[in-house]
Amino acid sequence: MKRWRMPATLLLAAMVMLACSGQRPVEPQSQSSAPAATGPAQGGRLVYALSADANGFNPVTDQFAAQSYSMTGTIIETLVSVDADGNWKPYLAESLTPNKKYDEWTIKVRSGISFSDGISLTGDIVKANLEAQKRSPLTAAAMMPIKSFELTDPMTVKVVLNQPWVAFPYLLAVQTGMIVPPASLTDLKTASLKPVGTGPFIFKEYVPDNRMVVTRNPRYWQKGLPYLDEIEFRILPDTQTRAQTLEAGGVDAIGTSRDEDLTKFGAMKDAYTVHRAQGMAVAEYMFLLNTAAAPLDDVRVRRAMAHAMDRETVIKTLRGGMTEPADGPWSKDSPWYAPGGYPSYDLAKATALVKEVEAEKGPISFELISTPDPNTMQGVELAQDMWRKAGIEVSIKQADQADLINRAITGNFSATVWTQFSAQDPDGEYVWMHQAYAKPVGAISLNMTRLKDDKLSAALDAGRMSPDEATRKQAYATVQQRLRDQVPYVFIDHLNTGAIIARSKVRGIGEHKLPSGEKGLPLTGSPIPYHPFGQLWVSGQ
């Protein structure tokens, strides 16, 4: 297995920082006319196909992608979760309470929980985990606003911040909020290969680039869960192979983002169910641009690229017309969306901008990076043709996902195909856009466009620090305006073709409940979504 490391990066993959407040239309779209089941059944085995292997299973040391959350999340749980409306809710934490300024948060740890190794969950273990995350080169940047952690009693941790942070709990709903036992904090290598947590399943087996197997945790703290006895996560990188294996009965569920899979399996309603991510949980498909290196350091070139992009043609060609064009990181059904100002498709305007730049600097050319996946390459070649029509010469360089991400982080690129922005609160995108996280080419930068824009950063700060909803909405309207003006990303569409397709016997996808009894967020992640597994069950056992 290619296990790669990059110091000082954050939840890359993810591009899925969960965060937010306000109502969200995130109920899963499920198509099935299979007979209604009488209720969850205990027992059974699930074989679940993933698009890629994990980089490791230690949340302190390993970069997490959507597939990492699928596998590791069965074993290791977070302090915070997110409900179906996109609001944060305590999970391993019993409560999180801010002071009046929102620059201190008090975490009360839920009692009666133990790790699968028998160690009880306590405040000092939570404190040790958070301190490890703050020290980790991987996640330190995300923890930068945190000044200190204090154990105020055996089950309570106070987090002291450098500034107000109203959306802070969402940081604890992802990798940075995953809690492992003390042994995993000292033996990092073992924790990366054999994870231990408080979750509904226990690690059984891992074969790199092939499979991971987990079994039921008999001492799980939520009574009656999980329903399944065992889950095998099978690694099948090729999209077509996953679909064929599902149809042949080799796996019970797959993740996909192909519109043809949605159409094909969606038509077989008695045999399969289709679950699609919606609302803020949907990531955006785009091209990530390096604004710190020529020729894309010239905003006129970036605007020309946006004007030359016929998004409707891309959507018809790649998505079967199923998606909506994107003009920013949030879709029109988001309460944070602000309309207007994105460069529309206008080949004449794009060509005029190119000629203007060429008159000053000469011909415009750059390299575009893509993964070798055929579907991805089709979109990249479409973009190449559209930009060439405007007078921009584009060559394509293929790279595997790990290399592509590493090149983006270090600035060793001009443009690359990209999928991002599925946070449940816009503050979840802070580190990807704020100029404080934009480092020079060659240095590791979470702001991978390396755009330094005072107005954009000031708006992100206002959105982070103000508890007033109207102030936050105005701030994020400014964020969208600056992104449309400066064009660090060429947005294409909201990727709601990301879906989980399952055989009809698989029940409970996107229907889990939180410890409070409230419905949890059904699906999230990009480009293929993920979800919890503790409340999945198989009918007909």
Automatic annotation (TrEMBL):
Annotated signal sequence range: 1-19
Gene Ontology terms for molecular function: peptide transmembrane transporter activity
Record-level GO cellular component terms: ATP-binding cassette (ABC) transporter complex; periplasmic space
Domain Solute-binding protein family: start-end pairs: 88-432
Family indicated by similarity: Belongs to the bacterial solute-binding protein 5 family.
Family matches, as PANTHER family: OLIGOPEPTIDE-BINDING PROTEIN APPA (PTHR30290:SF9), PERIPLASMIC BINDING COMPONENT OF ABC TRANSPORTER (PTHR30290)
Name the record gives this protein: ABC-type transport system substrate-binding protein
Protein source organism: Nonomuraea thailandensis
Phylogenetic lineage: Bacteria, Bacillati, Actinomycetota, Actinomycetes, Streptosporangiales
